[in-house]
Specification:
Blueprint (H helix, E strand, L loop, with lengths): L2 H18 L1 E10 L3 H9 L1 H7 L7 E7 L6 E7 L6 E11 L3 E10 L2 E14 L4 E11 L5 H20 L1 E8 L3 H8 L5 H4 L6 E7 L6 E7 L5 E12 L3 E8 L5 E12 L2 E10 L2 H9 L2 H18 L1
Antiparallel strand pairs: 1-7, 2-3, 3-4, 4-5, 5-6, 6-7, 8-14, 9-10, 10-11, 11-12, 12-13, 13-14
Helix pairs in contact: 2-3, 2-4, 3-4, 5-8
């Protein structure tokens, strides 16, 4: 082989590598859930932590989450025996129920593996939704295209299932956000209004902070006792909280939940979200009137604040 031939092949290989470093990937999903529910499943960190792991062997831990334009998420993908994968996500556009744009940067052991621009477009009705995700990928340390295809494909399949077992409730309460947050994240006041009409709370332990818990019984109008255990994972003052719901102290988990608080012209929009652990858990909850019971709980919160 002549030197000229060798040089030519080297240039061709370099050009081929440059071409494979960049890719545009498109994913489409039809989802049996309202577009409003899909939006929350896509953007709320508590829901994202449930569906983002591509396989059961992977766990996703959120270190930081600020869902607003200019806000940032940092999460770690963990697999036993392997180095953690760090994902930094920055929100660039958030048009509720329509469109989001974010950058994503993946790194491992301090080496940046890839950067990407992710655009999600949503449309739909009160019963079903369509999601189109476009990923403009730049592989840096190695060719990441196939990994992105597999990861996003599996994650969006999980998202479809999560959206279908997600319940979203919203209520605008005529009080400042600080007041609403204070009524919720107060060990003395929370048990006084929590629960549907006619229910009361009997607390065993309560510690309302990230890493804290609330062990309590819900007591129905007929005296039936329902043991509960809330484990708190996140508490960003006057912004959001996230927690797990267990059937009784250290019992089986039946849902991941969150509450967010937004200013609305001096009032506060409270969003209460819940991802049921299984489709069967979701079905049973809906049959028991979970939506109506949840709205009753938010109504009791508003009434409690008005009467103070």
């Amino acid at each position: 082989m002549t030197q000229a031939t060798a040089d030519s092949r080297a240039v061709d290989a370099a050009n081929e590598y440059e071409m494979t470093r960049f890719a545009t990937l498109t994913f489409e999903r039809e989802i049996t859930a309202p577009v409003s529910t899909l939006w929350h499943a896509w953007t709320d960190p508590a829901a994202r932590a449930v569906w983002a792991a591509p396989t059961p062997a992977v766990t996703v831990e959120f270190i930081e989450a600020d869902t607003k334009v200019g806000g940032r998420e940092i999460s770690l993908c963990k697999v036993e025996g392997q180095p953690d994968i760090r994902c930094e996500n920055g929100w660039l556009v958030l048009q509720p129920e329509k469109r989001s744009v974010n950058y994503e940067m993946i790194s491992c052991e301090g080496v940046t593996q890839s950067v990407a621009l992710v655009t999600a477009n949503m449309s739909g009705t009160a019963e079903s939704s369509r999601l189109i995700v476009t990923v403009q990928l730049s592989s840096l340390a190695e060719d990441m295209e196939e990994g992105y295809r597999q990861g996003f494909g599996a994650g969006l399949a999980n998202l479809a299932g999560v959206a279908e077992r997600t319940m979203i409730l919203q209520r605008v309460i005529q009080a400042p956000r600080s007041v609403v947050w204070g009524a919720w994240m107060n060990a003395e006041t929370l048990p006084r209004w929590w629960g549907p009409d006619g229910f009361s709370c009997r607390t065993q332990r309560i510690d309302l902070r990230a890493g804290g818990e609330w062990v309590f019984d819900m007591i129905g109008p007929d005296g039936t006792v329902f043991p509960n255990h809330h484990l708190y994972h996140e508490a960003r003052p006057e912004q959001r909280l996230a927690y797990s719901l267990l059937w009784g102290e250290n019992g089986p988990k039946h849902a991941d939940a969150w509450a967010s608080f937004e200013d609305v012209d001096g009032a506060t929009r409270v969003t209460l979200g819940m991802v049921f652990s299984t489709t069967d858990d979701c079905r049973k909850a809906m049959e028991m009137g979970a939506v109506e019971l949840g709205y009753q709980t938010l109504g009791k919160l508003e009434h409690f604040i008005k009467m103070r």
